[in-house]
Amino acid sequence: MKWLEGIKKQFGLKALKRSLGEERRSKVKNFDDSRSVGILYQEKGESFYILVKQYVKYLQEEHGIREILAMSYIDDKKEVPFYHVHRLKYDYFTKANLNWKSEPECENVHNFVARDFDILIDLEKDPVLPLKFVLARSKAKFKVGYYSEANEAFYDMMIKTGDNDTFDDYIKQVNHYLKRINKG
After folding, report:
1. Which of 29, 102, 161, 183 might form a disulfide with 142, Cβ 3.0–4.6 angstroms?
2. Which candidate, 121, 108, 137, 119, places its Cα nearest to that of 40?
């Protein structure tokens, strides 16, 4: 069945490339100029969820950003971790919400991509196809993510990290540049 998954992935990648062709007006934003932030990540367990929560709290307290929504992809069809249920600033979609090309098709995702976030921060270093669809379709003004040549079409600003850099190292770099970029 691996060959079938490979075929599905190829069709998904073609559909993803078509999604990138949709028009979006990008605008360089920093934390001081922003009122809303979207965050994308893949579910990796409660400890990573706690890191995301701490980051959301940091953005609210240190930068006064009121509107923050974190969207998580849960790579499971049935089991949603208890800590994801009933959270106002955190939303998710699961494998059950994907079509055969790995495109998310649910109200949570449609609402997220329609939001005009000032900044969208992707926390994933390795490509996650369902999250790439969300990223590509998002109306966010300024998209930030990890550096790679394959990511150039997705982001307005990319952060280059070392092979051994941690999540904290990446977040420090994101914060550094989003505090200083576009300052007069």
Report:
1. 29
2. 121
